[in-house]
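Input/output pair, single chain:
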Amino acid sequence: MTPPSPYDALQLRIKTILPATYRDCYEDVQPVSMGSAGLKYTPDGQVAWNEIWTTFCDLAMAGGPPHKGKLLEPATPAEIEADPIRHQQVLAEICRGIALVTELPVQPSAHAGWVQVECADPVMAGWLLRAITMENVAARADGVFLELPAGPAYRIEKEIKNVITVIAKTCHYWVEHMWPSQEAAIGELFAAMAVESPLLEPAPGAIATPAEIEALTGLSPTPPLYPGWLGLECPSVPAAVWLIRALVASNVLARREGTVLYVPLNPTTDPQGRTLTRTLAELCGFAKDHHFL
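Output:
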């Protein structure tokens, strides 16, 4: 049997990662929002997080609109120290909401500015990490543990709702739209990609742009907005959507804000951005050959 071409192998990886409902139609998904669900309250005045949603927008992973227009990040240590009581209140409400909508164990993380969710296994945590990052909410994963952001300035109807919505949405697709056989295939794919190159994630504080990236990709870097992330201007939303899917299927976290593709900078795991540059150059070549760029 003739092995698939590199482009066809990439397409197979994308289909493996996507929920079954998207596997044969993801190129047709439009980045159109459904609008925001309103809050509902229990008789004692608490938000009834588990009664808000009856359906969800398409995953950003599949080409739907990212849940957040801009990246939602955790508070800094200084921000937490300035209002520790409010920060504890935010942590408690996020944990309460996540427990209601996912039924997963959740608690404040040992790392300031984060809550920790215990997933069923490392594959679920790894998939949620990728899917939530593409929704423009900061996330980290280690084994079965997934971490999501928090901060004292988070508001119930905005940032707190954003965090709870994004895990409700992504867990819904993982639990309701994935067969066990596909979850196993995703685990095998993650393991195979890790052998090729460790998952490339953003490193806090990293800001240096790899020297050759514009020349090799044709994408112009944007002014730095987020430490650990490099923005690259794409010619269109469809081009950015195609590239974030292709990057995640190449073991590189990615997200977009409009037409700006954000890719991770990590001088520890990817000195001088060599892996990032090489991967982007190959993917941009595919995109041009197939008229995505």
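The first strand starts at residue 106 and ends at 108. The chain has two domains: 25-196, 213-289.
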